[in-house]
Amino acid sequence: MENNDSLNEEIAELEALNQKPFTQRLGFYTKKSGPGWLQGAITLGGGSLAGALYLGVFMGYNMMWLQPLAMILGVIMLSAISYVTLSTGQRPFQAIKQHVSPVLGWAWIIATLMANIVWCMPQFALGTAAIQQNLMPSVGNSTLSTTIICAILLVGALIINVFYESGNKGIKLFELILKLLVGVVVISFFGVVVALSVNGQLDWGAVFKGLIPDPSLLGKPAPTFDTAIAATGSFADFWTGKIASDQRDIMMTAFGTAVGINMTFLLPYSMLKKGWGKPHRTLAIFDLSIGLIVPFVLATTCVVIAAASQFHTKFGDVLNEDGSVKPEMIGAYNKVIDVRLKAEIGDKFATMDDAAKNAARTALPKADRELAAMLAKRDNFNLANALKPLAGKTISQTVFGIGVLGMAVSTIIILMLINGFTLCEMLGKSGNRAVHLTGALIAGLGGFLGPMYFWSNASSKAALAIPTSVIGGAMIPIAYFTFLLLMNSKSLLGDAKPTGAQALKWNILMTIATVIATAGSVWVLNGKGLYGQIGIGILVLLFILGLAGFMKKTAKAKADAQLITKD
Fold it and tell me: Which of 146, 281, 420, 472 is positioned for an S-S bond with 260, CB 3.0–4.6 A?
């Protein structure tokens, strides 16, 4: 009863404030924000770190614009999702099944469930790596230490999820913890860039130039690679294709981690959990702006800047002066150079013993070896080490490690939360605390097992975010297209359905976001062979079924309305 009274007071105050100028609403909006910060907590995870880090390694400052653009498009769709949800008060899974298509509804929720579990794995791996490599290297990376760290992460995240299920005060505590974690992430990475700037390591002119969109770079290597590629002679075309292919996945990672399909699921259910309704629609958009756009753009931009300044077109952290590979980078370097060798000697390479392979690697021209070193994937430990001479151990390892750990922990908490909502909806048990916590535990256990049974190599822990981001990015058009249809559903929205100029604005913005997301997914899937073609086929099928279902249900709703009018 007390919670209802509090919510009614909030709604009354909000309705009064909505009539005042925006500047007079800022204080209230800031105090009441929440769901947007949950979105910020999930998007600032291992995928965002890997995407930003590798974007800096491969593209330098040239694509600083990519992640902010992806976030803007994502917030357009999330704003539309909040509008639909708050205007109707309906749970989206049921609304999609009733007003669009059960097939799209189930595709959306199953994709979300898969993304939650898959994405938890790299977060646990990243959190473990941050502790073992950056913060407490003395604990080592044994199976025992990995198990203990993962268990602590799992139990801690589950306890915080219990807060969320304990009522209004628990939700406020939950949101406060997430705001603090997001703040730690942003401050940590911002501190790294400040240290780089103070030491004169940043070309701010190039940084600002990189914020201007240049789509021509989507299909070719960054121009800063031109000299290094040309030096490889007859294998220049090979390296051009190799870099362009790798960049494609990295760009999709950077793009796909801005707003993932599970974020489209979290937002409406977190708003409904707080009791938000129509009066909260403007607050919801403000909440997304301050809780999602600002932290994401600041944090990822800082990582891109740091990675670009230390690694782009550089090989000194991979190769020694005599041309030998530094021990800690052998694995990452060999993954690149071996592709070059296979292009020259074919299947024979796979039959060679280790000594012969090493001899072949060493015998390659200097230009090829240096370019391979430039492209070797670094992780958060490499970046922290590269910054050590500039910022000292405190900034380079401890502060950077805290930021990485904050990314991992906040994302684990939110992925478990989303999986709780997901399982409740799939089983038709909305609001059931036991089912919700069971769903949270399922995602957490999936993440707990990841570092120990699937990825034991430390350098692959951050790199793991790349394939999972590609999967998540390929799924996002399903959600975007679905909510585009819902925004045009008279049977769902009733009088709240946008009309005239408002409808035109929403449809133009949502269509642009959907088309770009779909084009990006098809672009990536097209380069994935047979499985990619199957993925494209599934996307096309879902689009057709969704549109057909929407048109059928819309026609039925009109017919029913005409019958009621005649009666």
Answer: 472
pLDDT average, residue stretch 15-41: 75
524-535: b or e for each residue (b if 16 or more CB lie within 10 Å)? Answer: bbeebeeebeeb
CATH of the domain at 158: 1.10.4160.10
* Cβ-Cβ contacts under 8 Å for 407 (sequence gap 6 or more): 44, 45, 46, 48, 49, 126, 185, 299
Q: Mean pLDDT score of the chain, rounded to an integer?
A: 83
Pair 124, 411: CB distance under 8 Å:
no
Q: Is the pLDDT of residue 256 over 80?
A: no
The answer to the question of residue 26 being in a domain is no
CB 81 within 8 A of CB 483: yes
Residue whose C-alpha is closest to residue 53's, from 232, 246, 272, 303 = 303
335, 354, 374 - which closes a domain: 374
Q: Please give the tally of structural domains in the chain.
A: 2
**Residue 356 belongs to what domain range?**
327-374
CA 135/CA 46 separation, integer angstroms: 17
Q: What's the pLDDT score for residue 83?
A: 93
The pTM of the whole model exceeds 0.85: no
> Do 86 and 213 fall within a single domain?
yes
